[in-house]
Every structure is written in C-alpha cells, then in structure tokens.
Amino acid sequence: INRFVLEGQMIEVAWTIVPAIILIFIAMPSLRLLYLMDEIHEPTLTLKVIGHQWYWSYEYSDFIKVEFDSYMTPQDSEDKSTFRLLDTDNHTVLPMNSFIRIIVTAADVLHSWTVPSLGVKTDATPGRLNQCSFLMNRPGLFYGQCSEICGANHSFMPIVVESVNTNTFINWVSSVSESSDDWK
C-alpha cells in the first residue's frame, strides 16, 4: 500500500493553502474600500449627538450654536399620522446631498445611535467621542432607535432624521437660532 494514499498530506496542504490565498485576494480590496468609506476629509456639516437616559440631545456647532433635546412623542398624542414609539417632538434636520459627520457620545450610560435606513450605527460611550459619516441623497424622514440595552426605557429613545434641501435647511437653522435667542 502506498503511504501517500493513506496519509494524504499533500492534498491537505493544498486544500488549506488554496482557500487562504483566495481569502487574501478577496480581503485586500475590501479593506481598502472599508477604509475609504470611513474617511471624510471635509464634511459639510458636523452634528454632535449626546445620549441621555432616555432622550437624545443634538448640537449644530458649525453655525450659530443650535442645541435642542429630542424626546419621544407621547403615546396618548392626538396626532394619528405619527408612528407610535418612533416619532419625536424635535426632528433632526439635515441637508441632503451633503457629507455629514456625526459625533456621538453619552452623558450617563452606553447608548447606540442607530438609523438603519441610512446604514448608521454608532455607539455612544460616556467620556468618548465616536464618529461616523453619511450622505443622504433623497428627502424624507429616516427613523431609528437606541439599539443598546441602556436601561428600562431604552426602547423609548427614538431618532428621526429629516432630510431636506439646502435652502430649507438654512431657513430652519436661522429660525431655530432666532427662537433660541428669544428664550435667553
């Protein structure tokens, strides 16, 4: 009996090395694409998101300082056109066709700012700034929620991102900054 037939060392080496080489050829372009997708050198707008128990705070600091809190719309709301447990009292308004950088942190416990239809999921960690970026190419409302189990009411931390054209966004920023000046 031939010892090479019984042991099969050559075939074992071949079926181990050939798939490893194939995986390396697949991984190299993928790693390059992942790196390029994560880097935005000059974003048009930076939005800071702060997770609290159990609401989100937003800061637009590229312009006049615009800050607001976003709470879930009460369940006993008379407005039947809203999505139950997904709508907020203040929408996050962002311009479409602009590169947007989101800086995410938390004030108390771990949260996760997640908007699946935008392909965004970034953990909010106290004492740490995490960043992600995206581009919205159509107007509309994009819904999300905290996807980290951050406490008893973590499912009551909805996110609503409203994508609008640039002129509407500029008008919104100026109206919000004027109304916040009236409060001070």
UniProtKB/TrEMBL annotation:
Q: Which UniProt keywords apply?
A: Copper, Electron transport, Magnesium, Membrane, Metal-binding, Mitochondrion, Mitochondrion inner membrane, Respiratory chain, Translocase, Transmembrane, Transmembrane helix, Transport
**What Gene3D superfamilies does the record point to?**
1.10.287.90, Cupredoxins - blue copper proteins
Task: Give the primary localization class.
Answer: mitochondrion
Ranges of residues in domain Cytochrome oxidase subunit II transmembrane region profile = 1-41
GO cellular component term, pick one: mitochondrial inner membrane
A single BP term in Gene Ontology: ATP synthesis coupled electron transport
What CDD domains does the entry give?
CcO_II_C
The entry's localization annotation reads: Mitochondrion inner membrane
List, separated by semicolons, the cofactors it needs. Answer: Cu cation
Record keyword Transmembrane helix present = yes
Q: Which domain of life is it from?
A: Eukaryota
Annotated GO molecular function terms are:
copper ion binding; cytochrome-c oxidase activity; oxidoreductase activity
Q: Which Pfam families match?
A: COX2, COX2_TM
Q: Which residues form the Cytochrome oxidase subunit II copper A binding domain?
A: 42-175
Swiss-Prot/TrEMBL catalytic activity:
4 Fe(II)-[cytochrome c] + O2 + 8 H(+)(in) = 4 Fe(III)-[cytochrome c] + 2 H2O + 4 H(+)(out)
For this protein, the record's InterPro entries field holds: CcO_II (IPR045187), CcO_II-like_C (IPR002429), CcO_II_C (IPR034210), Copper_CuA (IPR001505), Cupredoxin (IPR008972), Cyt_c_oxidase_su2 (IPR014222), Cyt_c_oxidase_su2_TM_dom (IPR011759), Cyt_c_oxidase_su2_TM_sf (IPR036257)
The transmembrane segments are 13-35
> What is this entry's stated membrane topology?
Multi-pass membrane protein
Matches recorded under NCBIfam families: CoxB
This chain's function reads: Component of the cytochrome c oxidase, the last enzyme in the mitochondrial electron transport chain which drives oxidative phosphorylation. The respiratory chain contains 3 multisubunit complexes succinate dehydrogenase (complex II, CII), ubiquinol-cytochrome c oxidoreductase (cytochrome b-c1 complex, complex III, CIII) and cytochrome c oxidase (complex IV, CIV), that cooperate to transfer electrons derived from NADH and succinate to molecular oxygen, creating an electrochemical gradient over the inner membrane that drives transmembrane transport and the ATP synthase.
Subunit and interaction comment:
Component of the cytochrome c oxidase (complex IV, CIV), a multisubunit enzyme composed of a catalytic core of 3 subunits and several supernumerary subunits. The complex exists as a monomer or a dimer and forms supercomplexes (SCs) in the inner mitochondrial membrane with ubiquinol-cytochrome c oxidoreductase (cytochrome b-c1 complex, complex III, CIII).
Q: Would you identify the family this protein belongs to, as annotated?
A: Belongs to the cytochrome c oxidase subunit 2 family.
Which protein, by its recorded name, is this? Cytochrome c oxidase subunit 2
